[in-house]
Amino acid sequence: MSGQDYEAPSGAFTQRDEIAAGSGTMIYRCGDCAVRVPLEKGAPIRCQKCGARVLYKERTRRMVQFEAR
């Protein structure tokens, strides 16, 4: 794919996404209680509400599209 064919994603970030991306904090979902858990780099992987250690990374809200060959 050449640089001329590239089209920038048009999905808009929300203010929450900009804050999380700028501060190095990622948002995860707890596997047991489904609460949103913000984690910084190096922080222990544990839910703050129930103490579970299974966290799932949230999917992006932007549309992700791949070009098939």
Textual characterization of the structure:
It is found in: Nucleus. Keywords: Metal-binding, Nucleus, Zinc. The structure is a single chain. This protein is α+β, with helices and mostly antiparallel strands. The chain has a domain at 33-59. 13% of the residues lie in helices and 17% in strands. The chain has one helix and three strands; from the N terminus they run αβββ. It has one helix at 15-23, and strands at residues 26-30, 36-39, 55-57. A three-stranded antiparallel sheet has the order 2-1-3, with no helix packed on it. The longest helix is centred in the first third of the chain and has 9 residues, at 15-23. The radius of gyration is 16 Å and the shape is elongated.
Keywords:
single chain; 69 residues; alpha+beta; three-stranded antiparallel beta sheet; 1 helix
Structure in a nutshell:
The chain has 69 residues and is α+β, with helices and mostly antiparallel strands. The chain is built from one helix and three strands; from the N terminus they run αβββ.
